[in-house]
Every structure is written in structure tokens, then in C-alpha cells.
Amino acid sequence: MILLIVGGFILLAGVILYMVASPLGGLILVVIGVVLGMIGMGRYTGTKVGHAITRSQPFSHGHVYKRQCPFCAEFVKSEAILCRYCRSELPTLIINSEITTEIEKLDYELLEAARAGDQKKFVELVEEGAAVNCQDEHGETPLLKAAQGGHADIVRLLIKYGADPRIRNEQGYTAEDCARARNYRDALQALRGR
Hints:
The chain has helices at 2-20, 23-56, 97-116, 119-128, 142-149, 152-160, 175-181, 185-191, and strands at residues 66-68, 75-77. By secondary structure, the protein is mainly alpha-helical. A two-stranded antiparallel sheet has the order 1-2. The relative contact order is 0.08.
């Protein structure tokens, strides 16, 4: 909204300068004002559209620990109000608390089963609807937890069920980084598809 207002003032100043004193200087200000106004309008309308879309989406699969900023596409925490990268206002999330609590429980149990290497419990939880790419408060996924524990069988199952090996935790490490750092060769081979 601020960019839209600033762009309008610069555009007005450019028109006045063009008419009174300097056509070239006025034209430059007009162009700058139009560009700022367009950026401001895009951000303003994008935020409003984002609010409407987010409120109308059902949250039926997986708890949202992180979400993607609609302006810069970076991932931020689900409770964030402003994007920490582009400082844009983020759309509000409306989540059914009963569904969320049950899904959070499944996701937490899946993370623990992956950490412990409990293959039977892991399969049960995935079949119940736990999200294989869920993340805890530190950005750890079941794949990261399984790789940290050297549980190659769980790593293979996670890859089979569609776990994303590119997801990084809050320190920036992937599952492959963790398996390599702890010298878990079987888990590393499972991550590489061997």
C-alpha cells in the first residue's frame, strides 16, 4: 500500500515537473512513479487475493509447520505475519483445530517412529494419513530423523512413499548431509537410490 501511495506522489511530481520546468526530468519521475505504483498495486492486490484464497482452502492433509510466501516463494513459519525475506504481509491461515490436533499427533508419532527406526509403526502411521514430509519445530522431517539414526530401511520406505530428500532443517542440512556426517553408508546408499 505504501509503494502505491509513494508511486502516486512521484507520478504527480513528475507530471508537474514535466509541465513547469524540465521535460526530461519530469519524464523520468513519471516513469519511476508508474513503476512504483505498479509494484505497489501488485503487492496490494496480491495480498488481498492471498487472504481470500487461504481462507477458502480446506486444510485436510498434514499440519502446516511452514508455508510458502506468495510474493517471494521462500518458506516461513506457519504463524508468521510478515515474510522474513521480503517483508510482505502474509495471508492469514484458518485451520480447523480438531483436525489439526489429530494430524499433529500422527505427524509427531511418525517423526518418532522414523527416529527410532520402528518400521511397523511407521507403515501404520503412513496408512493412517501421517504426512511423510511433515516437519517438527526445528524443520526436521521423518527422512532427516531416519538418516540421522542410520535407519536405511525407513529411509527406503520414506522415499517409496514420496518423501522429499531435498528438504532442509533449520540449520540447512538435508538427510544426505546428516547420513554422510555420521558415516551411515547404508542410509546414504538408500538416499541415493541404491
